[in-house]
Fold this sequence. Notes:
With 271 residues, the chain is mostly helical. It is built from 12 helices and 2 strands; from the N terminus they run H-H-E-E-H-H-H-H-H-H-H-H-H-H.
Amino acid sequence: MSGLRYLRCLEGITRREALRFLQQRGRFFSALVRPLVWLLIFASGFRFVLGVSIIPPYQTYVMYEEYVVPGLCAMVLLFQAMQSSLSMVYDREMGSMRMLLTSPLPRWWLLGCKLLAAVLVAVLQVYAFLLVAWFWEVRPPPLGYLLVLPALLMAGLMLGALGLLLSARIRQLENFAGVMNFVIFPMFFASSALYPLWRVREASPVLWALCHANPFTHAVELIRFALYGRIEPVSAAVVGGAMLVFGALAVLAYDPAIGGIGRRGAPPNPA
């Protein structure tokens, strides 16, 4: 099979995801308003100066709004990943992906195209949020807006791969909301998105250990450091490793010989 067909598949899935996003304006505004509401509430309730080492080895004092914005950027990626996995459940059962999964193209490529298209849409939403936050006087270094792009892509791919893995195990849309409540909220609140890890450690060492083991925490830290022009190597390694693990498990889960995706709805064995 020629490489042109692979590229055509990538273009088609990306274009479809973009058109779906443009046609569902409520999806864009909900993704934009949600972090802004969180920023408004937490900025009003916790408007104080944090002495945190965002850029090692320097001690940097930042306002709470500047600290929490990277966490809210990661929240945009997280919710977009879960929404994409929700659409994947629908498409797999009765939409376009039902036909694409039976095409000659390998499933890892189809899933990768779907994942990449969803991540590109999520990154656009993050930059729209950063633009609004700029008017909120949350203004990282200008170069940080460019340097944060690889961090956003890595974090988005990791969370999107997790969403694909979850979508492979969900057979009915009615079960999706319950599963997401056990994924989104624990991942978000048990992280450094809203509070520094050193303050969490002072409050509860057990909760600190859970936050430190949470891949979403490392996605937040990766974005936070990149937004200020630095690299957090530990977080980059954790996010990259989790991305590969979640992606490999998702491909295996969508393998009809292993995950059983292709056998759903098949006629019963006459024997």
